[in-house]
Design a protein that fits this description.
336 residues; alpha/beta; Nucleotidyltransferase, domain 5; 2 domains; 42% helix; globular; binds 5'-O-[(R)-(carboxyoxy)(hydroxy)phosphoryl]adenosine; binds zinc ion; KAE1/TsaD
Length: 336
C-alpha cells in the first residue's frame, strides 16, 4: 500500500473537494467547496459553469488542504481523482490536475469510480461507531444524480441489484420542490415544509411498491404532485408531507427487497444527499430493524460528495496494487 499520505480530488458534479489521508485512513485535512450559489439561479447544475468553477477552485483548494495538514506536494505517496461517472468537464479538470501532480512527483495515480468511493466510505477507519461493516453489505445510494441498490461484496466486487428507471430520488425531491415554489436544491426546503403538513392528506402514488426487485421510479409521483398543485385543493405543506411519505415508503420497500436479494448482508449503508432526510432515515432504520441488521449512516458530510471518500478509495486500491495508467480517460458513464 501507499507509504505516505494520499491526495483525493472530487469534481464530478457541483462540489469541488480535496482531502489528504494518512495511509491508514486517518483524515489529515479536507475541504469541500459547494457551487450551489453559482447554479441556484439556473435551478440546476449547469455543466459548463461547473467545469469552469472546478478549474478555478481546485488548485488553490488543494494547496490550502495540504497546508492545513502541514504537508507539501512532495510528501504525497499517491493521488486519487474521481474519473467518473459524472459531468465530463469537471471530471476532466480533476483527473488532469491529479495526473499533473502525479507526474510532477512520480506518484501512482488512481482513477476513482465515484460510486465505488461512496460504496467504500463506510469502511473508512473510525467513521462508524460500530466499526467498518464486513462484506457483503447493502449500499443504498440516494442522491441528486444516483439512485441505486448495490451489493458491496468486496473491493472491486459490486453488484447492482436495482436502480431508477427514470429520475434519481434527489431529482424527484428537487422537481416536487420546484412545483411547490421552493428554491433549488429543493430537498431540504421540502422537508422543512413537510414538517408542517399532514402526510395522509393527499393520496399520491407509491411507484413500484410491492413489485419484485428493487428498481425505482419517481416520474409518476412527480406528475401526481404537479396535478395536486394545479388542482389547488391541498395546502403546499400537505402535498410536501404526502410526497415525502410516498418516497420514504417506496425507498423502504425497495430496500426490503434488496435485503432479500442479499440475505447475508451485514447492514444497510446509506449514501447521498437524500440520506439527510429524517423521514427517509426513519423508514430505512425500520427496514433494517425488521431484517435484524444495522442501518449504517455515515455523518452527513461523508454521505454527500467529498474528497475523503475518493482518497480512501484510492488507498484501498493502492493497497490492492490497483494504480491506473495516466492514459486512463474520465468516463461520464461508468457503471460499477
Ligand atoms: O449527494 P448530493 O449532495 O449530491 C449529488 O446529487 O451528487 O445530493 C443532493 C440531493 C439533492 O437532490 C437534494 O435536494 C437532496 O439530495 N437532499 C435532500 C435533503 N437534503 C438534500 N432531499 C430530501 N431531504 C433532504 N433533507
Ligand atoms: Zn455522489
Amino acid at each position: 500500500g501507499p507509504r505516505g499520505p494520499v491526495l483525493g480530488l472530487e469534481s464530478s458534479c457541483d462540489e469541488t473537494a480535496a482531502a489528504v489521508l494518512a495511509p491508514d485512513g486517518r483524515i489529515l485535512a479536507e475541504a469541500v467547496l459547494s457551487q450551489e450559489r453559482e447554479h441556484a439561479v439556473f435551478g440546476g447544475v449547469v455543466p459548463e459553469i461547473a467545469a469552469r468553477a472546478h478549474l478555478a477552485a481546485l488548485p488553490g483548494l488543494t494547496e490550502r488542504v495540504l497546508a492545513r495538514a502541514g504537508l507539501g506536494f512532495w510528501d504525497l505517496a499517491g493521488v486519487a481523482a474521481t474519473s467518473g461517472p459524472g459531468l465530463i468537464g469537471g471530471l476532466i479538470v480533476g483527473a488532469c490536475f491529479g495526473k499533473g501532480v502525479a507526474i510532477a512527483h512520480g506518484l501512482p495515480f488512481v482513477a476513482v469510480n465515484h460510486l465505488e468511493a461512496h460504496a467504500l466510505t463506510a469502511r473508512l477507519p473510525g467513521l462508524l461507531e460500530s466499526g467498518a461493516p464486513a462484506f457483503p453489505y447493502l449500499l443504498l445510494l440516494v442522491s441528486g444524480g444516483h439512485c441505486q441498490c448495490v451489493a458491496v461484496e468486496g473491493l472491486g466486487r459490486y453488484r447492482r441489484l436495482g436502480s431508477t428507471l427514470d429520475d434519481a430520488v434527489g431529482e424527484a425531491f428537487d422537481k416536487a420542490a420546484k412545483l411547490l415554489g421552493l428554491p433549488w436544491p429543493g430537498g431540504p426546503h421540502l422537508e422543512r415544509l413537510a414538517a408542517q403538513g399532514d402526510a395522509r392528506a393527499v393520496p399520491l402514488p407509491r411507484p413500484l411498491l410491492g413489485r419484485p426487485g428493487c428498481d425505482f421510479s419517481f416520474s409518476g409521483l412527480k406528475t401526481a404532485v404537479a396535478r395536486a398543485v394545479a388542482q389547488g385543493a391541498a395546502s403546499p405543506a400537505d402535498i410536501a408531507a404526502s410526497f415525502q411519505a410516498s418516497v420514504a415508503a417506496v425507498l423502504a420497500d425497495r430496500a426490503r427487497h434488496a435485503l432479500e436479494m442479499l440475505p447475508d448482508a451485514t447492514g444497510i449503508v446509506v449514501a447521498g444527499g437524500v440520506a439527510a432526510n429524517g423521514a427517509v432515515r426513519a423508514a430505512l432504520t425500520g427496514v433494517a430493524g425488521m431484517a435484524g441488521v444495522p442501518m449504517l449512516a455515515p455523518p452527513l458530510r461523508y454521505c454527500t460528495d467529498n474528497a475523503v471518500m475518493v482518497a480512501w478509495a484510492g488507498i484501498e486500491r493502492l493497497r490492492a496494487g490497483l494504480a491506473d495508467p495516466l492514459g486512463h480517460n474520465p468516463r461520464p458513464r461508468w457503471p460499477l
